Fold these 4 entries.
Entry 1:
Amino acid sequence: MTNLIFFMATILCFTRAQGATHEDSLQQEMQKLDLPSNVLPAAANREKIYVIQDRFLPLKSLNEISLGVGQDLTSNSYLISKQVELNYRYHIDSNWALGVQESLVSTNYSSAAKRLGNYEASATDIPLPRSRTDLTGEYNVFYGKLRFDPTRVFYFDQYVGFGLGFTEFNTGLHGTLVADIGLVFWISKWGSARLGLKDYFDTDHNILGHFNLGIVF
């Protein structure tokens, strides 16, 4: 009987020791999973990392200066209007930004107008833009990623912007309402490429296609 009690006591102590060892092991495994936000365990599948990653380039308090070109897509068949743009943006955070833009506009007569001969003389009263100044507020609607292979991921924002400005015409100065929509692709953590459509409402609706390259700092 004494031997049986001793045997049972030995089994109980061994079981408790094994349970304590298992509990310590489980706690160690849980500590391995207790990682900072935006960090995956070392054994995580590489293909899944870009899915949960936060914004690659946080925009809060960053400056962006860009240079671009644009062309009026709604001018009549007798006029060709293009412009060169210098733009500055201050990013309040990753969603909101304030921007100011100065543009020099060049308007030329098309070959169709030149064939008419006297069109240039009869068009002196047509308002032709010479320069534009805009002040806009912009909002990044959504943030996305394009992945072409396991090592290359492109980050972009789809944005909308609205603002006020004025346009200098050959006939005088006019106030302008501005709307802008497009995509901005982030080049590493130092640059940007913007492609969009901008609507100027002054003496008429003028929809401008534009492309800009910039630096972010």
Entry 2:
Amino acid sequence: MLKKRGKIMQILFVLGIGVVMLSSCTEFFTSSWGEGAKRDPSKVKVTSSNAAALVRAARGDPELSRTILAKIAGMGGGGWSPALQVTAVRAANQGSGISKLILENVGLIAKDTTKTTVEDLLDTIKASAKGNHVDEISGELKIVLDSALSNNAFSSDFLASVNESDLVLLFATLVIADMGDDTMEDYSDGWSGAPTAGMGIRNFIWAAAQGLRGSDTFGGPINEILGEII
């Protein structure tokens, strides 16, 4: 029991670091177009050149972040650069609210001595994530990230552009979307190594996992999570 509690506390600590890293440079709307987007997200004009600034400015506004992600996904043509793909990941992470849910649940799980496994952790976050548009978000991410995925791995250009805390939250968002109504224990029983081609969301989950396994910051605890899930 003590060993399991030590593991869950280590993972909570790492997830908390990831969330804090992402929220440490919050920017706010200062221009007239930004204020207009705040009032009516559907009217915001998203281009490849302004998307990153829009996503930075949309921190704390899940609806606007989801709108930006949808418009990036709707650009079509498969012409998403690695930088634009990373922007989409950040919009998704903000739009899903997973980072906020992790912070809200870290204290609760840390205090609850009955929460001893990784499955407990993700079940708790998943329960809080209902209604957070994770299915819609994961579908749009699959569209945007498709050209970055090959043989269950993200391209080196994408991995060089994305930061590790973004990948942690991407992994969590995709897993929660893929779980559906399963508990984490039942869901993890359905994994048997790398997914075959064409399995959809699981190919992206695997790629995010592999992108994190060699991380100096997140590698150890993330390997613990991956070992129990997949």
Entry 3:
Amino acid sequence: MNKTTRCCAILALSLFSILVQCTTIENYFAFIHVSMGLESANTAFVVRKHGIVKALAPDLQSTDIRSITDDYIVQRGYFSISSEPEELPFIGDKGFFKYLRTSFTITSPHTFRGTINNYPDSGFGATDPLPLLLLEVYPPGGSAAKKSEFIFEEFRIAFALYFPYFSGDNWYFTLSNSVSQSRYNLDLIEGNTRLATVRDQWTPVHSIGLLYGYRLDHLFSQSQLMRNTFVFVEMVFDNTYRAKPLNIDLHRTNGLPADRLYAQQSYVRLGIRKTISLIDKPIRTSAVKAGDEQTQPVKGTTTSQ
């Protein structure tokens, strides 16, 4: 079973585990969280360094990966729809488990454009072992680097585990671990030549995040529009060490296969999260018992990848 299959199985089992604690699927999707705002997004493409490169040049980079893209940060709008945070199936929120929550999120599509350096190689046609090794250890940079344009499009379906999860009457704070399925398209273009095109591919992504929110209807008690509304700040970082390479197959000038390519993204988001009831049912916090008819804002959030 490959990594993609395992990831899909984990997501499916997680969804089933959450749904079995609900009397119906309708109850599970009774409330959704709509999040929108601005995000500062950064994407980078990296390759894993070979063992001999790490041995000969350990001080060039302290990590096992090497970025082959220029710094690329874009500010734009962000939108997502997510389920209400839920307790763990069969466990609830007793004792230690009150600090655990889970949810599912679908994010809006993203498009990234930028420059890749020296991929699949620097373009120098060296065949002798020593020049080839030197080009691996010390690839040309700056204006000497061979540059290609990339266009990367994706959206994600994510399952998030929030721990620790803290909330009060007017705020929440949590750390998140998210397992996502990313559906992506990728184009690599060098001058007027299209090096590679990938369409409608799926890959698993693991991300970690930090999230804080504050309830706005606490400040605007007379406003019906602000009811069950939070302002939030979120940071999300992809974990490249658990990533699967992109489904792209290129060769170097000397005919050898190119290094496997990995996408790495990070986001900083500022936005508004609104809780919406899809059925005629009061929005309840975890402090309100199931039989109460009192309507209160929901404590919690789901905007992570």
Entry 4:
Amino acid sequence: MLTVLVSFLTALQFLGALPKGYAEGLAIWVYVVTYGGLFLWGVTAFIATLSFQHRIKNKQSPEKRVF
């Protein structure tokens, strides 16, 4: 849940809805790399968590499914 919150807040900061703090002397590419990287990390961790939960759920299922 914390990862989703961080990802959401990062996206809002990147879009300008939330202030970025003290920004004097920083170019826009710094924000793109930093906040874009944090956002992608958050999305990746969230997808990995969902994948792990799905895999564990399927292992605990008493019936075997053949695809």
